[in-house]
Specification:
Membrane topology: Multi-pass membrane protein
Shape: globular
Distance between the termini: 72 Å
Helix content: over 70%
Protein name: Threonine/homoserine efflux transporter RhtA
Radius of gyration: 22 Å
Main location: membrane
Keywords: Cell membrane, Membrane, Transmembrane, Transmembrane helix
Number of domains: 1
Largest sheet: none
Number of helices: 13
Structural class: mainly alpha
Number of strands: 0
Subcellular location: Cell membrane
Length: 343
């Protein structure tokens, strides 16, 4: 009996297609994990800029200067991507959504980042990342206050675990050290609160504009206000030339922050959101603090004790379990009325 080569070949092709599909399905998770780790490296890069030596001290390097350099390197990329995206799309963008995206950008990428950078001067990179990672707690709280979202028992458990872990770190750990830990921690928690408000405000706009267009508009808006902030502050303190008279390593670090911790992770995250959804990407964000801890210990020589590990584990369990449970829920998209797009 002659074998049916057509059937055999077809089965082989189908098997190959399934294998390729499974392989492709893994890449969005890889991109999400890589994006989370690269973004978390920002804290390490900033601390590298503030390290003593190299011709400049932490007190001489203003946070807004480092932010302006970062945006100076990153801005051309976002402008180019926005122009290309708008040319390829026939979608009309109402002015009110553009203005709202700009306002969200100033909140999330200017104000939040400025407070974060100032806080990093005072505490370790590990503590900064751990404190900032608690922003979902504030998302839960503000969601209940402003949008009437019910706080579940799981949400309460996440809050208790997250801050119990932080309590362990502060009481028995070694990473809760720095120039001024109370002030630095307060600044980072403030940044987490602002970032939570940014997340809540951005959700609706991302649905209207798309994640890529929203990100570019928000970044461009933030870059504009950051540069203006830098100019005003520099002029009042001795001139722009003096503010930019920095060692080459500062420009190198700013470029690294711009590419590795701003541009690249933002697009990796956008790709992942489009493939596996925002909630699944949020779960992968758990890798961020872990990457920061490893890099801070190896590169910056920061301490990390057993109690730091216990506290970090408890905090990650609280936030991570909440994210995992949230990712299992079906993602609901609010319907958009045709008339609501009018400016």
């Amino acid at each position: 009996m002659r074998p049916n080569f057509r059937v055999t070949t077809t089965e082989a092709l189908l098997t190959e297609d399934k294998t390729v599909s499974k392989s492709k399905a893994k890449w969005p998770y890889v991109f999400a994990a890589l994006g989370a780790m690269l973004y978390s490296m920002k804290a390490v890069f900033v601390k590298m800029a503030y390290l003593p030596g190299g011709g400049i001290s932490a007190n001489d390097l203003e946070a807004i200067t480092l932010m302006a350099l970062r945006m100076g390197f990153a801005l051309p990329v976002y402008v180019a991507v926005l122009v290309i995206s708008l040319r390829r799309s026939d979608k009309r963008l109402p002015l009110k959504y553009i203005m709202q995206a700009g306002a969200m950008g100033v909140m999330g990428y200017h104000l939040c980042t400025y407070i974060d950078f100032e806080g990093l001067k005072l505490i370790t990179a590990q503590l900064e990342r751990l404190l900032l990672f608690t922003y979902p707690v504030f998302v839960v709280i503000f969601g209940a206050i402003f949008f009437g979202t019910k706080i579940t028992r799981l949400g309460v458990l996440a809050i208790v675990l997250a801050y119990s872990g932080l309590g362990i770190v502060f009481i028995g750990g070694d990473i809760a050290v720095g120039v001024n830990v109370p002030l630095g921690s307060a600044l980072i928690i403030g940044a987490a609160i602002i970032f939570a408000l940014f997340q809540l405000g951005a959700m609706r706009l991302i649905g209207r504009l798309g994640s890529q267009v929203f990100t570019c508009m928000a970044m461009i808006s933030a870059a504009t206000t950051i540069v203006l902030h830098f100019i005003v502050q520099s002029v009042s303190q001795g001139g722009i030339g003096q503010a930019l008279d920095l060692p080459p390593r500062i420009y190198l670090i700013a470029g690294m922050i711009a590419f590795f911790s701003t541009v690249l992770p933002s697009f990796l995250t956008n790709i992942s959101i489009g493939k596996i959804g925002a909630q699944s990407v949020a779960v992968m964000a758990m890798l961020g603090p872990i990457a920061t801890i490893v890099a801070a210990v190896i590169i910056l020589g920061e301490p990390f004790s057993l109690w730091d590990g216990v506290g970090t584990f408890v905090t990650l369990c609280g936030i991570g379990f909440y994210m995992w449970q949230n990712a299992r829920k079906p993602q609901m998209v609010s319907p958009v009325k045709p008339n609501s797009d009018k400016a």
